[in-house]
Design goal:
about 325 residues; alpha/beta; 9-stranded mixed beta sheet; 4-stranded mixed beta sheet; 13 strands
């Protein structure tokens, strides 16, 4: 897998009160002892962990020439990433997010837009084109947020030219631009959360049911791209996939939630892992739901204990009935 997207870290802040933070509101809270990571790192971590040692996970990105950047690269190497194309960008800090968490476990984040990640450009992709040639027709190209949209577009273009399976997730701020520019047409799989899907459907996510949002977004996307695979996560309401047979729903696994931050990225990683080993989209969805539910039991955006054995144990303890296909993958 060759991927572009955010590589960085952040701080968690626990807010008092579950009411949504107002635009001009001040509120008390306290810092939490939690480890935060950015999107490409999160998704790629689970892929590398669940598919190692024979699967090449190759992030393309920038970190700052600072202590945080060096620590993140060291962690990626220890996880099994090939970090040849993760470079330090002098004069720019490593990407950093300020994550706020409500007492019910939900939350959001504010992310810097002048980090090392913002300095990556399309010319950086030329250095990795040899890997596209090497894995032509068999590789996966992943475009994740927190790097310039033109870089993600460039990766998807190269991926399409080399017969890669193209995957992307977009933020609510850039998903409509991606749709207008035709980037969605370069994809095999698009992953969204509730807010991103509502943005596509031009609906208010606070006023519509999850099912309404899913149906509306899927209808718009498939009217243009009928063969596109779509995944939409709704947090505690479960998740949906859309393929040529239509929409398929999976409820969330009931667990004690420590933090939902990073759950959507874990879900996408589960889909990629499942599809990589030949599972159907429906069975990959089963694995994705399991991995996302396992993730929310950890306070960190990457569950440090994630592995095949841990997922087997989690399914057993949660009394989740798994298909024989997913059981075989986790053996």
């Amino acid at each position: 897998m060759v991927g572009v997207g955010g590589i960085g870290t952040g701080t968690f802040f626990a807010l008092k009160g579950n009411e949504t933070l107002g635009r001009e509101e001040s509120r008390l809270g306290h810092f939490l002892d939690r480890r935060d990571y950015c999107k490409l790192h999160i998704i790629a971590h689970y892929i590398a962990t669940l598919l190692r040692p024979d699967f090449l996970t190759l992030p393309v990105g920038r970190v700052g020439d600072d202590e945080i950047g060096r620590r993140l690269v060291k962690e990626m190497i220890e996880t099994g990433f090939d970090t040849r194309f993760v470079k330090a960008s002098p004069g720019h800090p490593t990407l950093y997010s300020f994550c706020f968490v409500y007492p019910d476990g939900s939350g959001g984040n504010l992310t810097t837009d002048d980090s090392a990640c913002s300095t990556i450009d399309v010319s950086d992709l030329a250095e990795v084109e040899g890997e596209f040639n090497r894995f032509s027709g068999t590789g996966i190209a992943l475009a994740a947020p927190e790097v310039p949209l033109e870089v993600r577009a460039g990766l998807l273009e190269i991926g399409r030219d080399h017969g890669f399976f193209n995957v992307a997730t977009f933020s609510s701020e850039d998903v409509l631009t991606a749709l207008e520019q035709g980037l969605i047409g370069k994809l095999d799989l698009l992953a969204m959360n509730r807010h991103e899907a509502a943005t596509v459907a031009r609906l208010n996510p606070e006023e519509c049911s999850g099912k309404t949002i899913v149906e509306s977004a899927a209808r718009i996307l498939t009217s243009h791209y009928p063969r596109l695979l779509i995944s939409i996560t709704l947090g505690g309401e479960g998740s949906w996939i859309c393929e040529e047979r239509g929409l398929i729903y999976r409820p969330a696994i009931p667990v004690d939630v420590s933090s939902t931050a990073g759950a959507g990225d874990a879900h996408l990683a589960g889909l990629i892992v499942g599809l990589s080993v030949g599972l159907s989209f429906e069975h990959a969805h089963e694995l994705a739901s399991l991995l996302a539910s396992f993730k929310v039991t950890s306070p960190h955006t990457i569950h440090p204990g994630a592995c095949r054995e841990a997922l087997r144990d989690f399914a057993r303890q949660s009394r989740v009935s798994l298909s024989k296909e997913v059981i075989a993958l986790l053996e």
